Each structure stands twice: as structure tokens, then as C-alpha cells.
Amino acid sequence: MRTGRDAFHLAIPARDLDEAAHFYWRQLGCPVARRYEDRITLDFFGDQVVCHLAPETPVTEPRLYPRHFGITFRERADFDNLLRLVEIRKVPVFQAARLRFEGTVEEHTTLVLRDPTDNLLEFKHYRDPRMMY
Question: CATH homologous superfamily for 9-132?
Fold first, then answer.
């Protein structure tokens, strides 16, 4: 079973590693842990995201489904802090913060960002933390 010492790992394409490092580190505050010619490894809110150089990644109009990744915050304050960071740093927003499933047990606020390679990142907070999973 996963413990707090473990980290989830996700590898994604990046057309340009400098752009990826700027977006994830300078805009979202996710430190670059390691950098090589062909990839950067990031501390993505306590988990590991690796951006692999893929300059041939086609430029397409991104869609939230079927593929995106992100963080579900347990605390509303953490979600709100991210919203402020996005506003202050003018992070590219794919879908502005909005409320989904209002009035139900699954009610949550969601925000979707777009990285320089058109990977989509969804950040959420559920009113009822039992709905996180």
C-alpha cells in the first residue's frame, strides 16, 4: 500500500524542455529535481512528473477527455492558493475555475490548465473529502 513516503510517477511529452521547466517550475512552483538532455524530472505537488523531450509531438487542439492529469486537493485553502498563483503569474488556463455537480455529494470546483505542449492539468477540490476517490 502507498504511504506518504511514496510518490506517484507520470511521464509526459514536452516539445521544448526550457518551456516545460518555465511552466512547471516558474509558473506553478514545481521544482526541477533533475535535468538531462532529453528530460526533466519535477516535484509535482509531492509526486513525480517527468517531461520527456518530444519535439515531434503534434500540435493539436487539446481535449480534456480522454487524457489529463492533476491534483485533487483535500483542503480548499490549497485550491484557492493555486487559483491566486495562476492569476498572479498569468498561467495559461484551458478551462476557468467552475463548480461541477452543484448541490450533490459529488460537488467540486475544478480548474484546467494547459502546458506549453498542450498537456492538460486538472486541479480539483471536493466539498466532501470522501468523494476524492
Answer: 2,3-Dihydroxybiphenyl 1,2-Dioxygenase, domain 1 (3.10.180.10)
